[in-house]
Every structure is written in structure tokens, then in C-alpha cells.
């Protein structure tokens, strides 16, 4: 519409220019022919007035149309921006909801596994403590045994340094035998603990691997959602820019 109005104005300006040329020609002819051209002059002047009036009206109409177009354009731009903002907000809500669902899925799939890993860690700490107690007990019993054995061999009491009686030697030997039985039990318990620790460590590693696998899976899904979200937002911004241009 704007281009058409400009074209109409050019046509009117050309006609006005032609009219001026005719008026100039009239002036020349008037100089030659005098009053005989006065009537033609009046007609040309009247036609010029009409054309100027039409040109002014056309210019006013064009300016009003331009203002109207600008107003409608601004309203449309506001409408497009509002629609784009709403679309971005909707996409953000959808993406956030999907991310929250994935976080919930991650918690549900790893919570029990992590609890079990923590229980295994607690049990490993307990077994480590028991193993240390057993080792300390073994060390103490071995020292006691060495002292008793030496006393029997020397037939001297390691405490009072007196000669040991026969019945006392037998008691000491029974004591040594009891220590040996305790040492065997403690050694067996230490081996049992080692096997249990090995089994628990294997189970803990297996559970940890499962947890990490789930985390990687969820993280990849989140990355895919974020990538799709960013592409969608970029597309919305591009289309908005194209429509506003």
C-alpha cells in the first residue's frame, strides 16, 4: 500500500510538472497572442489548483495510512513477542518437569542401592575393628605362650622365678594347650573375616557400578532434554526475529 501511494504521488507530481510546463508555454504564447489566451490561462490555473488539492489530500491520506500501518505493526510485534514468551515459558516448564521426573527416577533407582552400600561400609568397618581386636589378642596370647613355654623348658616359674613343681608343669601345659586352642579359633575367625570382607567388597563394587551406570544413563537423558530445549528455544527466537524483520 505504501509503495502504491508513493507511485500515485509520483504520478500527481509528474502531472503537476506537466501543468507547470504548460503554464510556461502559455506565458510564452501569451506574450505572442495577448488577451486571447487569458481564458486558457484561467483554465490551467484552475486545473493546477485541483491537482494541488488532490496531491495534498493524497499526502494526508498516505501519512494517515502510514501511521495506521505502524500502529498495527507495533501491535502485531507485541502480539508475536507475547506469543514467543509464552511458548518459551511452556517449553521451560516441560523441560523442567522432565528433568524433575528424571531426578525422581534417579533417586528411586539408586536410593536402596546406596543404602545397601552404606550398610556394607558399616559392616566392613566393624569387621576391620574385630580383626584388629583379634590380632591384638593373638599377639598377647603368643607372648603369654612364649613365657609359659620358656618357664616349662627351664622349670622356672616366669612370675615368681621359683622351681616349678611337677603338678604345676602339667597345669602350665594345659594352659598352653588352651592358648593354642584360642589361637586357632582366633586365626580361623580372622580367615573367616577376610573371606567375608572380600565378598562384601565385591558386592560393594558391584552395587557402586550399578549406581554409576544409572547416574550416567540419567545424566545422558538430561543432556538430551537440555539440548532439545536449547534447539527449540533457538528456533523460536529465530522465527520471532524473522517475523519482526
How do you describe this structure in short?
By secondary structure, this protein is mostly helical. The chain has three helices and no strands.
Helix content: over 70%
Structural class: mainly alpha
Q: What is the rounded distance between the termini?
A: 18 Å
Which stretches are poorly predicted, pLDDT < 50 over at least 5 residues? none
Radius of gyration from the alpha-carbon trace, in angstroms: 54 Å
Mean pLDDT: 83
Tally of separate helices: 3
Report the order of strands and helices.
HHH
- Give a quick account of the main beta sheet: strands, pairing sense, barrel closure: none
Question: What is the 3D shape?
Answer: rod-shaped
Strand content: under 5%
Number of strands: 0
Describe the structure.
The chain has helices at 2-33, 38-154, 166-244. The protein has 245 residues and is an all-alpha fold. Helix 1 packs antiparallel against helix 2 (38-154) and helix 2 packs antiparallel against helix 3. It is rod-shaped and about 170 Å long. The protein starts with a helix and ends with a helix.
What brief labels describe this structure?
245 residues, mainly alpha, rod-shaped
List the helices and strands and how they pair.
Elements: H1 2-33, H2 38-154, H3 166-244
Helix pairs in contact: 1-2, 2-3
Amino acid at each position: 500500500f505504501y509503495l502504491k501511494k508513493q507511485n500515485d504521488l509520483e504520478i500527481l507530481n509528474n502531472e503537476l510538472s506537466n501543468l507547470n510546463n504548460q503554464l510556461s508555454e502559455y506565458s510564452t504564447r501569451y506574450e505572442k497572442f495577448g488577451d486571447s489566451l487569458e481564458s486558457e490561462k484561467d483554465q490551467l490555473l484552475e486545473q493546477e489548483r485541483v491537482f494541488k488539492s488532490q496531491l495534498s489530500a493524497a499526502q494526508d491520506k498516505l501519512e494517515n495510512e502510514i501511521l495506521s500501518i505502524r500502529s498495527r505493526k507495533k501491535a502485531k510485534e507485541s502480539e508475536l513477542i507475547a506469543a514467543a514468551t509464552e511458548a518459551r515459558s511452556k517449553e521451560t516448564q516441560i523441560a523442567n518437569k522432565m528433568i524433575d521426573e528424571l531426578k525422581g527416577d534417579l533417586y528411586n533407582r539408586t536410593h536402596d542401592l546406596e543404602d545397601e552400600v552404606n550398610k556394607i561400609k558399616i559392616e566392613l568397618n566393624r569387621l576391620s575393628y574385630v580383626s584388629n581386636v583379634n590380632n591384638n589378642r593373638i599377639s598377647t596370647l603368643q607372648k603369654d605362650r612364649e613365657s609359659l613355654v620358656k618357664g616349662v623348658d627351664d622349670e622356672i616359674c616366669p612370675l615368681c622365678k621359683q622351681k616349678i613343681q611337677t603338678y604345676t608343669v602339667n597345669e602350665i601345659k594345659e594352659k598352653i594347650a588352651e592358648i593354642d586352642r584360642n589361637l586357632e579359633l582366633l586365626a580361623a575367625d580372622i580367615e573367616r573375616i577376610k573371606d567375608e570382607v572380600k565378598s562384601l567388597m565385591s558386592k560393594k563394587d558391584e552395587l557402586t557400578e550399578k549406581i554409576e551406570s544409572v547416574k550416567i544413563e540419567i545424566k545422558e537423558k538430561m543432556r538430551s532434554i537440555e539440548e532439545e530445549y536449547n534447539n527449540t528455544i533457538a528456533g523460536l527466537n529465530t522465527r520471532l526475529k524473522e517475523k519482526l524483520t
